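Here is a complete protein record:
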Amino acid sequence: MKFNFLKKTFFLALIGIAGVSISVNAAHGDKVVTSEPFEGKVVTDGLEFPWEMVWGPNKQLWVTERTGKNIRRINPETGESKILYTFNNAFVGPQHEGVLGLALSPEFLSGKGKNYVYTAYTYKNDKGEEFAKIVRLTYDKKSDKLTNETVILDKLPGSSDHNSGRLIFGPDKKLYYTIGDQGHNQGKYLDKLIESQRTATAQEVAKKDFSSYPGSTLRLNTDGSIPKDNPVINGVRSHIYTYGHRNAQGLVFVENNLFSTEHGPSSDDELNLLEAGGNYGWPNVAGYKDNLAYEYVNNSDNKKTYKETDFNADNFKEPLKTFFTVKNDYNFKNEKCGKLSYLCWPTIAPSSVTYYPKDGKITAWQNSLLITSLKNGALYRIPLNADGKNIQGDVIKYFKTNNRYRVALVSPDTKKIYIATDTKGNVIGTDGKPNTEMENKGAILVFEYKE
């Protein structure tokens, strides 16, 4: 793996110098504002689509590579890395398939429990049917390897589109996992019904049939079983914790509050506060129930059309924020983006969310959510209010580069922000135009706060 510094032009244009605030124009009227002094560099690159990144013991980065099929450990100071496990049976596709979420047991290397690591990946069975599974591995300190792959939940919905795949532990020591709507009602799945409003029946639960799980957040015990205190939805208790989602790729707990980021269609990416049993509206509602710039056109049912206000559900939950809600006369065919018109849509493609703590060293960032953007190649900071249940203040955009930002992580000392980038793809560049060549391919970038 190479260890390179970011280009000097990037440093000068986008990293604040002490005491100086830099602001440049960006897509959709955003501003990139950096009043805090940061220094940016590349930790390592050449990774095969890094997807998840978590802190392990001894301040090491544990990373999944979606297309590389690996769990890799990386030294954040030197960039030196080691593959700890390769999932040879994982099925990899160009966008959404492969090795996805990663979560270390809360007792990992603490001496208080077994050294378990959990991850999720897509695969195909002998019939060519695609599924996803959540598995557990054991870390062996002597060999410095992960071993004993054990399936804890199998035959989850899997697709070449909108798998979601974020996996985290909650403070309750339960696992939470997101499953997307499988890309139905668009592209090559245009004639397939979106099933995000479907919930499990008692018969399906008894048979371990998880076909009703697309568009949901799951909550499960570490052995894959259904927690006894999971919500009862439509008379049935299943793994489903929330539903009505499109493609939720971000999950983070702030104390006991669970936040999620979700890709919208052509507008209305969402930041949600998840509540047990909550219905988040998709596909009937995108963002707020306001009839603005979105109608549900059901292509599997003769293009039957529904307005957002046609949808009624007692457990419907609106987002805390959208990126972005626009008026009905918004022009979605911006000539600037040409054939890549979707890059000019009022969305950011939120790929992850993490939390910057109340006692962090960067005073201005304290008690904030940090959201990575695939489409804009930037980090969005959103301040929370004192109880951590709502947002307050302006959204601020940082670290704009010609990259697709997949996931962000705050260092234990809170002075560094690590960001993993996609190996390839399309992004709105620093010049505000479509860019198809990533500046840092499959990289881990670090932005260090300089007091």
